Structures are given as structure tokens and as C-alpha cells.
From TrEMBL:
InterPro entries: HATPase_C_sf, HATPase_dom, Sensor_HK_TwoCompSys, Sig_transdc_His_kin_sub3_dim/P. It is an enzyme of class 2 (transferase). The chain crosses the membrane at residues 21-39, 51-70, 77-97, 103-123, 130-147, 159-178, 199-220, 226-245, 252-272, 284-303, 310-327, 339-360. This is histidine kinase. It catalyses: ATP + protein L-histidine = ADP + protein N-phospho-L-histidine. GO terms for cellular component: membrane.
């Protein structure tokens, strides 16, 4: 049960490391690790002088250094790489050091990868004239190394292959490098490159396996004297399709099936011997591409919708196995035992691919649900915060307006001056209510933090001063006294919630405390808590309160207190009236 999380953790760490050091450095280090293992093994075998193969490492180290240096000084690194290639070619000829071919003859995998990366940085980051000069020098140095490191002379066919593969590498690298030079003048093209980079970063495990398989197929092509070049081309196309498959996986599966069918039909006419291995009649790169595309398709559309396309691909693989397993003559495989063994291997690989695809699809579904749940929770929290602010702020001012209007109505005929004064207070409360509404609208538009309002925006670090201002500006029609014993360093979140609790309590005094003549606000710190108490001497109202009651005031207070992990008590006081008490922790819970 712990294998899944451990695997996800390892994958996340590997992805983070790849992003930190960069994908070019990861590919370069992978190629170096391969050469390190391969050349070291060759140095200790019985073929030729012992340890002489280790003399290849200085050139490999030099090219790795130049490739890493090219990220900062591309032109200088390209010149240095050219010197390393030409200089070490002389060393190879003088000491008769055996060389190993990869994509290019007589060049190790690390040298080829490093050269491509240097070429990329030179084309991307240097001025056009400088780029042309250093790239030309690097190409000439590479041709010198290819032709000069073979002590017995290089055949025309091998040189032609090297020219062909070198041209493919040169053209492909320039195609990706040059468009990135004008990212400021052509942002749309640069945006497409960014999308391509994102696609590549998301496919790096598959790209790594395809790269290894393609490097091996390049080696097989050299060994077969270019007879396997058509298969290599099909394998390159299959690798590109597999990497680009996340964009349109269903169409990619159809295209890959067509490419593999073409490769299977061409293979019998090439008269390939065992120097170009095709396990089960299918080249290794195409096997990796097929498995990767099955995973991508199942992950994207599910197994039910992918069955028909996977069936077509499986039929092509089965046909290639029967048609191309026999070597060197093109004979059909008819032995039931051989067919059964290959069928078991194929079903096993297909089952692994489908299982991985379903696992990734399940993980994607879980991630989507988590994200949707987080979004829903955030939206609910935002709505609740706005609802509390709407109730606490606007209802507070509107209640004051209603109370003052009732007083003006009752006293207007007896004492017009009282009515005039009440109208002034009503005007002030209306202006404050409009200001509060504007703040709420600004918050809903995203111009201010959610839940901000007049007191949350104007609150200072002195809670006692803020409470005095709140009480003095209240228009609930009841004389209010206060007893404040507060330190100057009350946390901001606690102070803001305390203001809201006192404000809502005073609003309720004006709405519900029938016949109240006095209210008392107590705020003090006891131990590690802020203690709030608001009491009045009113009696329970018999009629409808001023402005009506939505019943959300106490709910909002409980929500605020719960957010701070505090306690709230509200009810009739023993001596009459109403009492609200709250205890708010001054330090948040760990």
C-alpha cells in the first residue's frame, strides 16, 4: 500500500531536480553516465590493450565542460569545443585509441549530446555573424573528428551516413533554436515554443527512454551499413508522434499504427541481418513509442474508448512479429511455441501500459477533485465572509438609520429640534452605509481583500482606540459605557474580529433590547485570551425589531469566533437584559 505514495514522491523529487538543473544538463549527465559505464567495461575486457579505452575520458570531460559553459558563454564554449574535438583527434591517432560510434561515427554519445547543446546555445544566444562563424567551425571540427579518428580509413558509406545524420542533427537543432531569438519581436512564436517546452518537460521519462532506444538504433544502422535507414526513419517519426501525443492522443494512435505498419512492410525487403535487432519483429524505439502512446491514450480517454485503437495497434504488432522475426531470410513465423511466447510477452507489455495509464488517469481524477473541492471551499469561504461583512457593516448602519427615524417620528411634533438633529444623524449613518457598500463592492471586484470593510481597513494596532471610535460612532440609540483594559499588541486578526463582535452586539442592542437605557462593553485580557462582554438592561421585545431580523447575526459571530478557535456565549443575563461574551485566543493554535 505504500508503494504508490513512495513512487509519487520519488517522481516529484525527480521532476523538481530536473527543473532545478535544467533538462539539457539532465540529458548531458545521462549520456555521460552511459559512456562512463560502457567505456569502463570496455577498458577491462580482453579485447586489445587494457585500460587504453580510458584515454577517451579527457575528451568527454572537455565536451561536458564546454556544454555547461555554453549556457553562459555560448560563442567561447563553441570555439573551445572545436579545439577539443580537433586536438583530441590528433591524440587518438597518435596513441591508436579505439573509438566508439553512436549517432555519428567515432564520436561518443556524450560528445554528440554536448555538441548539439553547444550548437543550440550558439544559434540562440549569439549575434548572427558570430553564430555563423562558430557553428561553421564546430561543424568542421566534427567532420574532422569523424574522419580523422579512424586509423584504418573511413569508408565512403560510413562517411555518407555521418553526413546524413549530422545534417539531421544540425537542421533539427537550428529549427528549434532560431525561432527563440526573436521572442520580443514575435511573442506568438515564442509562446508556441513555451508550449512545446511545457510538453517536453511533461514527457521527460518517455523522452529519455526514446532517446536511449534511438541512440541504439543509430548504432545498429552503422552496423548494418545503412540497410536499416528506412526503419530508423520510421522509428524517429514514431518517437516524435509519441512525444506529441498528449495534444491529440486518438489521432496520434492512428498515425503511429500507420507508421509501424509501414515499417513492418518495408523490413522484409531490407535483408537485415542480426546486426539490426528487432525484438519480436518490431524495432525497440517503436515498442517504447507504442507503450508510451497506449499509456497516454488510456490516461486521456479511458480504456473503453481506447480499445478499438489499441486493438488495431496490437494487430499491426502481431503481424510484424509473424512477418519479421525470422532472420536473415524473410520467412513467416509459424511455430506455435514461438508464437505463444511472443504473444505472452506482447500481452504483458500491453497490460503494463494499460495499468500505468489507468493509474495515471485515476491520479488525474483525484487531483481534479481536490482542486475542485479547494475551489468550492474557497468560494464558500468568500461568500460567507462577504455575507458576514454585509450583515455586520451595512445592517449596523441601517439599524441606526431606522432607530433615529423612529425617534424623529415620535419626537418631531413635540420638539422639532430633536427631529432636525436626528435627521443629521440619519444623514451621517447613510453616508457611512454607502461607504461601507462601496468597500464591499470593491472587495467583490477583487480590488480589496475579501471581507475588508471600514473597520477592517481602518483598524489600527491599538484595539482600545478602535473600540472607543466604534462605540462613539454607533447610532443604536442606547447610551453605552465601556471598560477597556487592553495591551497595545493585540494581534490584528483578533482585534478585527473583536471589533466585529462588539459592533454586531451593539447593533442587536438597538434592534432587540426593548426599553434599554444603558449598555456596557468590557474588553480585557485574561491569561492568553481576550475576553469581550457586551450587556444591556433591556427587556425582551414583544413586537418586530427595528428593520426586521434575518437571524444571521449570531451565526456570523459564531463563525468569527470559530475561525479563531475561541468560545462564544449569548443569552439572557441573570439580572435581566442580554449578555454576549466571547473568549478569543491571542496566539494561534499549532
Amino acid at each position: 500500500m505504500t508503494a504508490g505514495p513512495s513512487q509519487n514522491k520519488f517522481s516529484a523529487r525527480a521532476s523538481a531536480l530536473a527543473r532545478r538543473i535544467g533538462m539539457p544538463a539532465v540529458i548531458l549527465l545521462a549520456a555521460f553516465a552511459f559512456d562512463l559505464a560502457f567505456i569502463t567495461d570496455a577498458a577491462f575486457d580482453d579485447a586489445g590493450p587494457r585500460f587504453i579505452d580510458l584515454l577517451l575520458f579527457p575528451a568527454i570531460f572537455g565536451m561536458v565542460f564546454c556544454a555547461l559553459w555554453a549556457q553562459k558563454r555560448a560563442a567561447v564554449a563553441a570555439v573551445a569545443a572545436s579545439v577539443v574535438l580537433v586536438g583530441y583527434t590528433l591524440v587518438v591517432r597518435y596513441f591508436h585509441i579505439p573509438t566508439y560510434s553512436s549517432v555519428l561515427a567515432n564520436l561518443s554519445i556524450t560528445e554528440v549530446v554536448a555538441g548539439v547543446e553547444i550548437l543550440f546555445y550558439a544559434a540562440r544566444r549569439t549575434r548572427p555573424g558570430v553564430a555563423f562563424a562558430v557553428i561553421s567551425g564546430l561543424v568542421l571540427a566534427t567532420l574532422t573528428a569523424v574522419s580523422g579518428r579512424y586509423t584504418e580509413g573511413l569508408s565512403g558509406g560510413t562517411m555518407a551516413q555521418a553526413m546524413l545524420f549530422g545534417g539531421i542533427l544540425l537542421g533539427g537543432t537550428l529549427v528549434f533554436a532560431i525561432p527563440g531569438r526573436d521572442r520580443m519581436t514575435n511573442p506568438k512564436r515564442y509562446e508556441k515554443l513555451q508550449k512545446l517546452n511545457k510538453l517536453v518537460m511533461g514527457q521527460w521519462p518517455l523522452i529519455g527512454m526514446l532517446s536511449i532506444a534511438l541512440l541504439l538504433e543509430f548504432t545498429f544502422t552503422y552496423a548494418s551499413r545503412a540497410h536499416g535507414l528506412p526503419i530508423l526513419v520510421c522509428s524517429i517519426i514514431a518517437a516524435v508522434i509519441a512525444v506529441a501525443a498528449p495534444r491529440r492522443p486518438a489521432d496520434a494512435m492512428v498515425a503511429l499504427t500507420a507508421v509501424m505498419l509501414l515499417s513492418a512492410m518495408v523490413t522484409p525487403f531490407l535483408r537485415l541481418r542480426y546486426d539490426y535487432p528487432t525484438p519480436g519483429g518490431v524495432p525497440g524505439t517503436q515498442i517504447v513509442a507504442g507503450m508510451g502512446l497506449v499509456i497516454t491514450l488510456v490516461r486521456a480517454v479511458g480504456l473503453a474508448k481506447a480499445t478499438s485503437r489499441i486493438g488495431a495497434l496490437s494487430a499491426v504488432v502481431a503481424g510484424a512479429c509473424i512477418l519479421n522475426t525470422g532472420r536473415p531470410t524473410p520467412t513467416l513465423m509459424t511455430d506455435p511455441d514461438n508464437i505463444a511466447s511472443f504473444a505472452v510477452a506482447g500481452v504483458l507489455l500491453l497490460g503494463i501500459s494499460v495499468a500505468v495509464g489507468l493509474a495515471l488517469r485515476s491520479r488525474d481524477s483525484e487531483r481534479t477533485q481536490v482542486i475542485q473541492s479547494a475551489i468550492s471551499d474557497a468560494q464558500t469561504s468568500e461568500r460567507m465572509a462577504l455575507a458576514r461583512e454585509l450583515h455586520d457593516v451595512v445592517a449596523h448602519h441601517v439599524t441606526g438609520i431606522v432607530v433615529q427615524a423612529q425617534a424623529a417620528k415620535m419626537m418631531g411634533e413635540k420638539n422639532p429640534q430633536v427631529a432636525v438633529e436626528a435627521m443629521g444623524r440619519i444623514e451621517d449613518a447613510g453616508v457611512e452605509a454607502l461607504a461601507a457598500m462601496r468597500r464591499l463592492v470593491r472587495s467583490m471586484r477583487g480590488d480589496a481583500p475579501a471581507g475588508s470593510s471600514e473597520f477592517s481597513e481602518q483598524a489600527t494596532t491599538d484595539l482600545a482606540a478602535d473600540l472607543r471610535t466604534l462605540i462613539e460612532r454607533s447610532n443604536h440609540g442606547v447610551k453605552t459605557s465601556m471598560k477597556l483594559e487592553l495591551p497595545p499588541n493585540v494581534p490584528h486578526e483578533v482585534g478585527r474580529s473583536a471589533l466585529r463582535l462588539v459592533q454586531e452586539s451593539l447593533t442587536n442592542v438597538g434592534k432587540h433590547a426593548s426599553g434599554a437605557k444603558e449598555a456596557l462593553v468590557i474588553a480585557e485580557v485574561t491569561g492568553a485570551e481576550l475576553h469581550l462582554q457586551v450587556t444591556d438592561d433591556g427587556r425582551e421585545p414583544h413586537g418586530r425589531p427595528a428593520g426586521g431580523s434575518g437571524g444571521y447575526g449570531l451565526i456570523g459571530m459564531r463563525e468569527r469566533v470559530a475561525l479563531l478557535h475561541g468560545r462564544l456565549s449569548a443569552g439572557r443575563a441573570p439580572g435581566g437584559g442580554w449578555r454576549v461574551e466571547a473568549w478569543l485566543p491571542l496566539e494561534g493554535e499549532e
